[in-house]
Design a protein that fits this description.
By secondary structure, the protein is mainly β. The protein has no helices and 27 strands. Strand 2 (16-24) and strand 3 form a beta hairpin.
Length: 357
């Protein structure tokens, strides 16, 4: 019985192609005669996938007048070639399994995009020149994954047919690092059903790098503080709270500088305002001045300003110095002349009589 060799798949139709091999049975013979044959759906059956007919084979060995017809039909999911001709006494039918050709889709490779900064908005990458594995088949299905969900959790892909798709992704807040994003395209295969063994699959990966950017340090500050001008050294506990590096865990190792406090008019104080590491405000008012003085507080960290980072935060509060009424003052003349009318210094309207004995 002749043996036919599978020479591959017609990429335009997905059909398997055969040619006669110079062999008979399982033995290899270098000078064996070639066997002319043809392929066709001779019996016009519809037992193939989606009602398609199965391919039958007609072969005529050279130097013979014998016609071999291998009628192909489905037998419990496999194929049966029923042999007719003058050798039916040897084999009346042979069952065999046909595995459909797997034809993957294709699309252009995606170059690694340029690094992006931490906390940027949504990014997009175009998938170009998409081609189906089986041209007349279903539309392709795409999926996309991230190897580092702590950086980019859920990338998405949008594809509505045609030759392009769009991948979108957004880094999580306050995180930097790298991740591998993989896009996978699936062709439904010969049976037109996704998820089968004949699905054609093509995938490609690219690397996304997210660069660190220093976030400003943080602290909470009361809106104002108050004291009387005669109060002397004054303290306000917990005036500042919540000191931190800002940003995410990548900034935990940063060091905070001491708070820098400065009044817009230092003359209001005998001891300038200061805030210690516990958040306690200390100052001493000038007893001869009153009013409201803006005071700035600056906190700086060691994160630097690379890539547009911010390493300092400044806030302002009002320090209210309340007035206190001072008593009037005057001075008496110590030794007035005998017989003269004495005046109270500093009080012209006040006069006193001195009796003469």
């Amino acid at each position: 019985m002749p043996t036919f060799r599978n020479i591959g798949v017609d990429v335009s139709t997905g059909n398997v192609r055969f040619e006669p091999q110079e062999s008979i049975g399982v033995g290899q013979f270098a000078f064996a005669e070639r066997v002319p044959f043809t392929l066709a759906n001779l019996d016009q059956d519809t037992s193939g996938p989606n009602g398609a007919g199965t391919i039958d084979v007609i072969a005529v060995p050279q130097d013979t007048d014998t016609l071999f017809v291998l009628s192909n039909s489905l037998v419990q999911g496999s194929r049966r070639a029923a042999v007719s001709g003058d050798r039916t006494d040897i084999a009346s039918g042979v069952d065999f399994l046909i595995r459909p050709a797997i034809l993957p889709p294709s699309f252009d490779l995606i170059a690694n995009p340029l690094p992006i900064l931490k906390d940027v908005a949504q990014q997009s990458v175009i998938v170009a020149r998409i081609t189906k594995g089986r041209t007349p088949g279903h539309e392709l299905q795409f999926s996309v994954t991230s190897s580092n969900p702590a950086l980019i959790a859920q990338p998405t892909v949008t594809y509505t047919g045609g030759t392009t798709a769009n991948i979108s992704y957004t880094p999580l807040a306050d995180v930097n690092g790298t991740t591998i994003i993989t896009i996978l395209g699936v062709d439904a295969g010969a049976d037109g059903v996704f998820g089968g063994a004949d699905d054609g699959i093509f995938e490609h990966s690219f690397i996304v790098s997210v660069m660190a950017v220093n976030d400003p340090p943080v602290f909470d500050l009361m809106a104002e503080a108050s004291a009387k001008q005669t109060d002397g050294v004054t303290t306000v506990v917990n005036f500042v709270a919540g000191l931190g590096n800002g940003g995410g865990t990548d900034e935990n190792s940063q060091i905070l500088d001491p708070l820098v406090v400065s009044a817009t008019d230092p003359s209001f104080f005998l001891s300038q305002p200061a805030i210690d590491a516990t958040g306690t405000l200390t100052f001493a008012p000038n007893p001869n001045k009153s009013g409201s003085v803006p005071v700035t507080v600056m906190l700086k960290d060691s994160g630097g300003q690379d890539n547009g980072g911010v390493d300092a935060t400044t806030k302002t509060f009002l320090l209210n110095i309340g007035p206190v009424n001072d008593p009037p003052s005057f001075a008496l003349i110590a030794n007035p002349n005998r017989g003269a009318v004495g005046l109270v210094a500093g009080c012209p309207a006040a006069r006193s009589q001195i009796a003469i004995g």
